[in-house]
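Q: Sequence in, structure out?
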Amino acid sequence: MSEFLLLGLSEEPELQPFLFGLFLSVYLLTVLGNVLIILATISDSHLHTPMYFFLSNLSFADICFVSSTVPKMLVNIQKHSKVITYAGCITQMCFFIFFAGLDIFLLTVMAYDRFVAICHPLHYMIIMNPRLCGLLVLASWIMIVSLFYGTLLGVYLSSAATHNSHSSAAASVMYTVVTPMLNPFIYSLRNKDIKGALGRFLKRKTTKGSIFLRLKKCP
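A: Exactly. Output:
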């Protein structure tokens, strides 16, 4: 066996341009969001802490994770080809499993970091009271865990009798494409430090760009 055929999400030709645009947009949004988090944590000295160090590593892992599958999918849609070589399939699976495992371990490390911060605080417990922490943990279990592991287990632990290739493919999209896209929003939209660092980073870039243009216009 030298090749495999990828089933894809749909075999209807008229849906292929829509799927290509959809997944390209999601992929670019995922990469952009995670790159902004990495740049913010690197450029701002206030974010040089363990929590944001782990967060930037998680963003990098998410970029690599989604890049292990989506670009090949986009190429196949564009070329109207579902073929992947045996070597290409093995390589893709190796990177996919590696970065999926890395994601899980990074989330575990981040959880331990927060555990240490909560259990050894100065005045941290006054702000992060047990009720709020419990609600945050409950929300995390239901939403960043059920979304990932629920769809993952639904695909790979479903019985052969109820197996449906299209529903499995749709579920796979949830944890391979949607979850990495949501991580930047989950970790940054409600985070004042990240938003402040991003604002300062973009402001510096805008200022440097305007100074460069002014110098270029001078005779």
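The chain has a mean pLDDT of 75.
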